[in-house]
Design a protein that fits this description.
UraD-like, 2 strands, mainly alpha, about 0% strand
């Protein structure tokens, strides 16, 4: 973790590499990096919330490619995989919930053609399962907006773990 002051002082390439694991969307990363210097953490997070808004379909696809199915552990040794494992670590999933998540993941993928994404940090497995089942009722346009919001929430949680006030 680095301070906001240190983040503001980094060269653009280093800043890009530092925050890209938060959300691998070029336009988002550029928007946050190019907005420096930030006088406060609040302004950094406000800029991160607004960067690349709205996401394009290609940006959503790119960002989702780095996320495992909910309830499954990310493999590999990338920063994104480590962050995902950490975010899902609190999902003490029993066999019944695990089976329902797997069924829900597959139903979601059949309906929307992509993985189900939700900010797992701070949520119970039952809450996530409830959200998964509820979101299966969304129309595709509504779900695109929900996914974009979840990506932003995940990015902000991750950014808070990278840059401290």
């Amino acid at each position: 973790m680095i301070t906001l002051h240190q983040f503001n002082q980094l060269d653009a390439g280093t800043a890009d590499r530092l925050i890209r694991p938060c959300l691998d969307v070029d336009r988002w990363v550029s928007g946050v990096v190019d907005g420096r210097p930030y006088p406060s953490a609040d302004q950094l997070f406000a800029a991160a919330r607004e960067a690349a808004d709205p996401f394009t379909a290609a940006e959503l696809e790119q960002a989702l490619s780095h996320h495992p199915r909910i309830g499954e552990k990310a493999s590999g040794d990338t920063t994104e995989a480590g962050l995902s494992r950490s975010e899902q670590a609190g999902l003490g999933v029993d066999d019944d919930v695990r089976a329902r998540l797997a069924e829900g993941n597959h139903a979601y993928e059949r309906r929307f053609g992509r993985i189900f994404l939700i900010r797992a940090a701070g949520r119970s497995s039952e809450e996530i399962l409830d959200q998964l089942e509820a979101r299966l009722q969304n129309d595709p346009d509504t779900e695109d907006q929900v996914v974009a919001d979840q990506l932003r929430q995940i990015a902000l949680v991750r950014l808070a773990g990278v840059v401290s006030p």
